[in-house]
Amino acid sequence: MGAPLSGIAPIFAISFLGFSVGKKMQQDTPDQKLSAIQLFKAGCLAGVFTTAIMAPGERIKCLLQVQHGHAKPKYSGPIDVIKQLYKEGGVRSIFRGTGATLLRDVPASGVYFMSYEWLKKATTPAGEDPSKINPLRAIFAGGCAGIVNWLVALPPDVLKSRLQTAPDGLYPNGMRDVLRQVIREEGVGGLFKGLTPVMLRAFPSNAACFLGYEIAYKFLDKIPGL
Known about the structure:
Layout: H1 2-26, H2 36-66, H3 78-94, H4 98-122, H5 135-165, H6 175-186, H7 195-221
């Protein structure tokens, strides 16, 4: 519990920062409207930004979760995981699965932000400014964006989790070996294991996230000098 909670706030902050940077890199003027593809690219950059925290954070979380219920847990907490991983394989061991995290978060973040902006615009009545806060529209667009995000992210997330919790040397070719094993033993359905609970969580959590973002953005925008 401690590992995901300690990382969720900075992860979302960095994600929205990356999205903002990605938009500005493609704009000639601050008020220029971006196309869906441009929003997707900006979202992909957000996925790159968050990987520095997500990769080690997810590795720690996964190792703590898989030991749950063991009579003698190997790790006493997140800090102990970091210490033992560093002792066993240095920084490289802590960041194992970084490539897999990128494979998950880059496209998923792209569709996440793109779908949110598109849905927000699509549900805005003609003649009204989409950037104007409307709680119901923000909740609907944010919740749907969360669902789309996890439909894209879940298969690589399943592979990433198995890679990060596997003993050293079990998957010498990384994600390719994990994918072969999952398809061979469980079929394509194995890539979507846990889909139902993920979808049940995706809508409310991301609806709240985007609503909070819109409110905070408008509040900070009114403060002189920011």
